[in-house]
Amino acid sequence: MDGESVELWLDPLRPLQLDGTRLVLAAEPGLRDWIESRFGRCLAAAAANVLGDEADVELVPDPGPAGPAPLAPVLELDEGALNPKLTFEQFVIGDSNRFAHAAALAVAELPGQAYNPLFIYGPPGVGKTHLLHSIGNYVRAFGGGLTVRATTTERFTSEFVAALHAGAVDRFKGRFRRADVLLIDDVQFLESKARTEEEFFHTFNALHEAGSQLVLTSDRLPRDLAALEDRMRERFEAGLVADIGAPDRAVRLAVLRKRVQHDGVRLADPEALHVIADRVADNLRALEGALIRVVAFHSLTGRALDAELAAEVLDGLYPARGRLAQPVPTPTIELIQQMTCEAFGVTHDELVSHDRTARIAWPRQVAMYLCREHTDHSLPAIGKRFGGRNHTTVLHACRRTSERLASDQDAFDAVRTLSARLRGAP
Questions:
Q1: Domains in the chain and their CATH numbers?
Q2: Contact present, 116 and 187 (Cβ < 8 Å)
Q3: Tens digits of per-residue pLDDT, 194-218?
Q4: Where does residue 141 rank: exposed (0-12), middle (13-18), buried (19+ CB within 10 A)?
Q5: Is 379 exposed, middle or buried (0-12, 13-18, 19+ CB in 10 A)?
Q6: Contact between 189 and 219 (Cβ < 8 Å)
Q7: In 236-306, which ranges are E strands?
Q8: What is the pLDDT of residue 388?
């Protein structure tokens, strides 16, 4: 049973009596039969775990509180709705997703003020959900108590239908319309669901009018969601629409390197990652799945985790497509600093100095940003090479750069050009 269902249907139950192994719970009269038929077995199993096999759960109509009615609880984030591993720090930036990442970070830092709504679209497996969860995790950590609601369109639909059957639509509305930030994944599934689309339309309007932030993802542009009503598509297009494309080879390699580093996988030959990156080109989920497959084969057979093993394991699922590209070397911090100095006309001494004038501060922020995205060095290690700065300063520089990229076309072009040079692009 997922956390959303527990919060919606079981949290309101009120314990009335515990007599030995008999537990009496009070439910709203209109919901008692629904809860008993849908969750009776789950409640019985939970009681048996605590009270023993003889436990008996009885649901009775709630007679109402003896005193004044309790205040409605403040709706907080469903802890199970966000994946804590999907953060901005773990997101790998490339030309295909740089704008969407910058927009997402701006929204996370200024919910309801930067871009509202933010509509992120792209094919499956390119990082839309990662950015969505990154926003939620960032707001939860730094939002000063703002409430976040994260869900998928399918879950929104199923809970709305259940609320209709149970006569609990007002409670359903309250859960979604009292959030400061609403994150909805896969809104394309609203198509051909007239009742759900109607409810979502009113939820969208209520939140937007209240100044709450909305972030939506889809596999298509709003205008291509032909089965939705015009008024819904117009709402989606009213804010910022940002696209994510298929990851380029540099991004695929960076994703694999981060995953290997995070999981503590020891490579006998780094070329193994190049083989995987060349075989799986369009989908990051499939890319990580291919890595897991190769690592599992290595663990089960004891063979060295090298390019030969990777090619053998992936031959059936992902055949080689002609001659593989040459390996992409990981740029060094020194190279990034040198290229940044050349691009902005500053010296290395100025770049690593404590000079905070705009002429020096912006190139320094760009260089730190590029070091984070194009090297495997930690934030403290990067800061050390920039005049002994700490990791907080580096993280701040990365955030400021991302924000500027979302609003300054010249800055965006300059960083994109530097990134292409670091990847060895012509």
A1: 7-61 (3.30.300.180), 98-243 (3.40.50.300), 249-314 (1.10.8.60), 333-422 (1.10.1750.10)
A2: no
A3: 888 999 999 999 999 999 999 999 9
A4: exposed
A5: buried
A6: no
A7: 240-243
A8: 92
